[in-house]
Amino acid sequence: MKQKLVVFIMLMMSGLAIGQVQFTANVSKNKLGVNERLRVDFVMNEDGDNFNPPQFSDFTVVGGPNQSVSQSWLNGKRSFSKTYSYFLAPKKRGNLTIGQAEITIEGTVYKTSPVQVEVTAAVDQPTDGENSEYIASESIHLVAEVSNSNPFLNEAITVVYKLYVSPRINVSDWRQIDNPKFSDFWSQNIDIRQLEVENGTYNGEPYRFVVLRKTVLYPQKTGKLNIEPLTLNISVEVPGNRRDIFGNRFYETVDKVVAAGNRTIDVKPLPQEGRPADFTGAVGKNLKFEVNTSKKELRATESLQATVEVSGQGNLKLFDLPPLTVPASMEQYEPEYSERVNTNMNGMQGSIANSYTLVPQAQGKYPIPPMSFSYFDLNTRSYRTLTSEEIMIEVGAAPAGARSPSGSTGPIAAQQQTPSAANQFRYIKLNTSLKAIGEAPFMGSVLFWSLLLGPVLLIPLAILFGKRREAIAGDVRGNRIRKADRLARKYLSEAKRNLGYQTKFYESLERALHNYLKAKLHIQTSEMSKERIQELLTSKGVDATTVIQFNELLKSCEFARYTPASSVAMQQDYDKAVGVISEIDKQV
């Protein structure tokens, strides 16, 4: 019976203790050298008045008091914390005591317990609360905030780099030492026109912060992927120990290297269950699929445009559009690819399209059958298949005088070859100019000797031309070089037209490099990570220097999205791209 009573009393006392006011003193270290500094925090869980710090008789106050407040609500319960911070320098060695602090909360005076601190002889490398290096490291923080650490393959995530700075220091300058390399991601930096300083909190304390960079990432592999840190060298102005005649502290400039830290992203694979056969890797939200034609009625041998378009929000640049299927008697040309895509913090938004030129060769009705497009919908976490409607093209007879397609027979061909009555004699020459025969002898005339000797004179030219052709045919290396140069300039023609316009130039340059790899190595855009490109080119016999130059070009295209480039730099990148594509084509 006595034991039960004791347990009951202890439970009652613990319950009362939970609801009591807490006022404690915490120190940054319990043992320090006489040349080091100490930080002491007086923390309370309820707001109070008339705070009285201890006398600090064994210490010199070199900083403070700094005040910070933190308040939050969790499951309907309020959490409050208020802190007064001091930085202290010990006056002597030995076991020193930090006395009691006092606070008045709701009319009751609360006191902290005394804190014992051991002070030893001076240390060689002090790390203390008022050392400039220590203050800089404790007052500035670079943070990488990731929007989603567990995305699906090809789902957009964002990384925002924020620099937090304590109010008691100033940042005079900063520069980037190392940029993160997103080797397993497709990346796009969001332009920040002007850095803006905002107020916020870091670990419950008031801080100023600025957003340095925003990046949109599309993971191209599944599993755990690493986001490398952004590293900066920052010049920090820190209050020192010296004061002027008015008691104000002199500031010291300290160069501090800070990094955002590695972040790990666990990428989920797209589900195999329910995956359509025509799925090509499209991932997004509310995508739309349309197939349109510029006209539905025309005459044979006239042309029309058929457009296959996908629009909405998703990885628009990272999948292939379904090919257009038309009847065999309708001539179809290679499609012209176009994109109108903007990238913001929600990912890619806009549209991509393939435009086909179609030419029906005979009269009749031509159906363009329904087409399907499948993608993984991030809203429903399932696959969706969109289907276009059938389009019927009405083709009339060819215009009078138009040439019929080669090899065409039957009534339609005959009808196309029959001229109209009004024009059936248009090929007969009605106006003649007759001349009498025998006025001047043909034998011995200039025309006679030209026709006689001309073939003889052409024989040496024909021999020289033949030898020239044999020399060109035998020059295998030269032919490969010329063929490679023509191929490079073909792929880079769009980039050349955009020289001088930075954004359009580097977008077309990057697209040309990707299209070349797709045609040469038969890989999809989603497989184009730097490691995969290096692996494939090396396996095809391309030397390491050329592979490095190709990846550097891709890196230049990526950096150019947020780094200004001159016309000279663009021309150099264009010339480098011509040389690299030519070199790869010669080696593969």
Automatic annotation (TrEMBL):
The keyword Transmembrane helix applies. The keyword Ligase does not apply. Residues 1-19 form the signal peptide. Keywords: Membrane, Signal, Transmembrane, Transmembrane helix. It comes from the Bacteria. The chain crosses the membrane at residues 442-465. InterPro entries: BatD. This is Oxygen tolerance. The lineage of its organism: Bacteria, Pseudomonadati, Bacteroidota, Flavobacteriia, Flavobacteriales.
